[in-house]
Amino acid sequence: MKAQVTIASPKVCLPAIRMLLHGWEEGATAYTRYHLSDPKSTVGVRSVALTSYPTGQARRTFAAVEKSLKDCQSVVYKSMLGNSVHAKLSPENPLEPGDESLRVNMAFSWKGIENHTAYGLVRIGNVLAWFNFNDTFGSTLPKQEKAALMPVLPEILVAQQVNKVKAALEVLPTS
């Protein structure tokens, strides 16, 4: 699959921002995306993308994103609407499941609306599972109310998806 052009600066942020915004990177051989549901929470958007790569490419892609995040605390990128977005990236503790994992929060404000997205990236063999949970709210809300609305990736939902991928990989023939 050929990646669409992403414009971002500084350039060191490109691997991270491409993965965070799109859920996959160039070289992927298959891609599927769907929404996750949580009966306890109807706020925000939760989705997952599963992307398959040729042998070794998922590991290299994960390493490039991880390195990019270490060197990139903030980024300016061109959004799908054509405007420039200045976002802050905050790496968090890795997610538990998978061969390798990372977690990062991205935040930006636009026209008085704060946008917060919690991302997770988990490598399971030659598959990358990209998780996203987004929420927006007015920037004039008190800090306490904002804190209650901050998106969090529920470990249980991530673990369930990772287990499904592992089970599917076990029944696939190896070539």
Could you explain the architecture of this structure?
With 175 residues, the protein is of the alpha+beta class. It has a single domain, classed as Protein Transport Mog1p, Chain A (3-Layer(aba) Sandwich). It has helices at residues 14-22, 57-70, 143-149, 155-171, and strands spanning 8-9, 30-35, 45-52, 74-78, 84-92, 100-110, 113-124, 127-138. An 8-stranded antiparallel β-sheet has the order 1-4-5-6-7-8-3-2, with helices on both faces. A hairpin with a 2-residue loop joins strand 7 and strand 8 (127-138). Helix 1 packs across helix 2. It is globular and about 55 Å long. The two termini are 21 Å apart.
Entry keywords:
alpha+beta; Protein Transport Mog1p, Chain A; eight-stranded antiparallel beta sheet
Task: Give the SSE map.
Elements lengths: L7 E2 L4 H9 L7 E6 L9 E8 L4 H14 L3 E5 L5 E9 L7 E11 L2 E12 L2 E12 L4 H7 L5 H17 L4
Antiparallel strand pairs: 1-4, 2-3, 3-8, 4-5, 5-6, 6-7, 7-8
